[in-house]
RNA sequence: GACAAUGUAGCUCAGUUGGUUAGAGCAUCAGUUUGUGGCACUGAGGGUCGUGGGUUCGAGACCCAUCAUUGUCCCCA
């Protein structure tokens, strides 16, 4: 058969894995620097854990797992009946009851709901794992990709927001990616919906205004009309959006919004939260059009976009005051952020931001002349490894120049040769692959030569 | 779900209005060089032209269908 990859998935070659690890390592070390602890959850969850948490569009993108054993004859009648329901777009336990996880937040909420009493609150966890979405792949969008999440549950404090924003700043600084970090507050959006006629309009309004920069004011108004919003409501929204188009000063924007929503309590709360954050950060932009699709957010919402490059957001997050409420455990507030490693990788690759020598495979190759020198070779291998020098012996005693070519392609720093002459003189030959210089030295002298490339 | 582009050697791609035996570069293998890599030179292997039909004396090229990949819209990291 002809081997192929499932749509939207990729193999990662060694060079790519090294680069991805470079990103992971920076994110992980920042998470740990800020006191977050690692957590992992299963690749798949019960379907009902995930369904209904990501909106109608999200539900369609969940990868469902077909139950096993449906072919058993005694199950045929039930399976046929169940499958008819599947054909109508329903999920039936008889056909599918498990699904690949769609993000890390909902499984985390499930975990917290199950373990609330054992957790040392406020609980700060980070999680780096793949997630799956049955989306049509395109630029910057894959069906399997890795998210890096950090969340704090069990605390209302805005200090958590400050810490998370600081992590974003630190990580992208270390990665050398220029980004725009935008924030908004769901309470402000809720106020807008209230002023326009009711909180039930929130989704319609946010979906439309979120597109302002993409499709322009006229198209946004068109979309609002299509959603049957009143003329008064549309004029309020236009006024709201005009602030965004006229200036980018956070505090000026805040005061304008404050005036617009002067008699709405929830707006006052949201504005107070935003003002608190802007006092600590100068380089974060207040974006009144930022909405974020997930409807479990209740306060601060955050999105990170790379500058000067056509790519969706590379990070996002926000506050949710009752995420575990979905699992009947109320009153556990939380806030979290997420990094999209695959898009970060694409941005860095496109902008050439990876450091030049990022790989760490074995740096020393021992040439295999013949099995009669095996004992000496093995002795040197152990000796070097005891001194933290990564090395390998070519496993077959094939032609010399083949082995040298292998070393060259693997980009090793040194080649060590042990053959008849070396054995006779109780020395080893070591060749520097960059300079081409070769010398005959004692076993002990190897260490001082190789010291600079040891893995400390 | 809608639309578009692409599909020729392991990889990246040429292939003229349809016309001998389908090419190049890189990669692979062998040799120049049996204990010295990169560089160079010489040579070799490697293709049911995505698949199935059709038009034609003749199809890699034209038509239809189908599959796959990629991109755009929607939505998202």
Give an overview in words.
This protein has helices spanning 14-33, 47-50, 55-60, 76-87, 105-115, 159-175, 186-195, 202-209, 212-226, 231-246, 250-260, 265-278, 341-350, 374-386, 400-409, 420-425, 443-450; strands spanning 37-38, 44-46, 64-66, 96-100, 123-132, 144-153, 179-185, 284-286, 300-306, 315-320, 334-340, 364-367, 391-393, 414-417, 428-432, 438-441. Helices cover 42% and strands 18% of the residues. It starts with 13 loop residues before the first helix and ends in a 6-residue tail after the last helix. The chain has a domain at 364-453: Rossmann fold (3-Layer(aba) Sandwich). It is α+β, with helices and mostly antiparallel strands. The strands form 3 sheets. An 8-stranded mixed beta sheet has the order 1-5-6-11-10-9-7-8. It binds one RNA strand of 77 nucleotides through helix 3, strand 6, strand 11, helix 13 and helix 15.
* Helix segment tally: 17
Q: Helical residue percent?
A: 40-55%
Q: How many DSSP-defined strands?
A: 16
Strand content: 15-25%
Please supply descriptive tags for the structure shown above.
456 residues; alpha+beta; Rossmann fold; eight-stranded mixed sheet; five-stranded mixed sheet; 17 helices; 16 strands; 18% strand; RNA-binding
């Amino acid at each position: 058969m002809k081997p192929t990859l499932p749509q939207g998935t990729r193999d990662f070659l060694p060079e790519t894995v090294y680069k991805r690890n470079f990103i992971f390592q920076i994110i992980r070390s920042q998470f740990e620097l800020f006191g977050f602890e690692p957590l992992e959850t299963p690749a798949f969850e019960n379907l009902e854990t995930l369904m209904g948490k990501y909106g109608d569009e999200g539900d369609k993108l969940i990868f469902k797992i077909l139950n096993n054993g449906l072919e058993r004859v005694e199950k045929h009648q039930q399976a046929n009946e169940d499958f008819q329901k599947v054909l109508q777009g329903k999920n039936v336990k008889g056909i599918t009851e498990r699904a690949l996880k769609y993000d890390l937040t909902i499984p985390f909420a499930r975990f917290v709901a199950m373990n609330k009493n054992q957790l040392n609150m406020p609980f700060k966890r980070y999680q780096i794992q793949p997630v799956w979405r049955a989306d049509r792949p395109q630029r910057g969008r894959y069906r399997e990709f890795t998210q890096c999440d950090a969340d704090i549950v069990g605390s209302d404090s805005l200090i958590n927001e400050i810490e998370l924003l600081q992590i974003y700043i630190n990580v992208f600084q270390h990665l050398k990616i220029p980004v725009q970090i935008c924030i908004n507050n769901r309470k402000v959006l809720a106020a807008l919906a209230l002023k326009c006629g009711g909180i039930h309009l929130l989704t319609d309004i946010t979906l439309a205004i979120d597109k302002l920069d993409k499709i322009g004011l006229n198209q946004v108004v068109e979309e609002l009309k299509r959603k049957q919003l009143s003329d008064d409501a549309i004029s309020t929204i236009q006024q709201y959006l005009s602030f965004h188009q006229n200036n980018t000063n956070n505090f000026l924007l805040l005061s304008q919004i404050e005036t617009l929503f002067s008699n709405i309590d929830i707006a006052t709360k949201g504005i107070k939260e935003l003002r608190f954050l802007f006092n600590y950060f100068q380089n974060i932009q207040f974006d009144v059009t930022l909405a974020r699709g997930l409807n479990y957010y209740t306060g601060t919402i955050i999105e990170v976009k790379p500058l000067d490059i056509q790519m969706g957001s590379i990070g996002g997050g926000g506050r949710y005051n009752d995420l575990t409420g979905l699992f009947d455990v109320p009153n556990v507030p939380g806030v979290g952020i997420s990094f999209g490693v695959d898009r970060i990788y694409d941005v860095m690759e496109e902008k050439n931001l990876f450091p030049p020598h990022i790989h760490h495979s074995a740096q020393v190759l021992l040439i295999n002349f013949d099995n009669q020198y095996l004992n000496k070779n093995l002795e040197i291998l152990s000796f070097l490894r005891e001194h933290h020098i990564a090395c390998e012996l070519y496993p077959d005693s094939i032609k010399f120049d083949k082995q040298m070519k292998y070393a060259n392609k693997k980009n090793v720093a040194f080649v060590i040769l042990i053959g008849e002459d070396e054995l006779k003189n109780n020395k080893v030959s070591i060749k520097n692959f960059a300079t081409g210089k070769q010398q005959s030295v004692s076993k002990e002298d190897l260490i001082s030569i190789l010291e600079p490339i040891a893995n400390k």
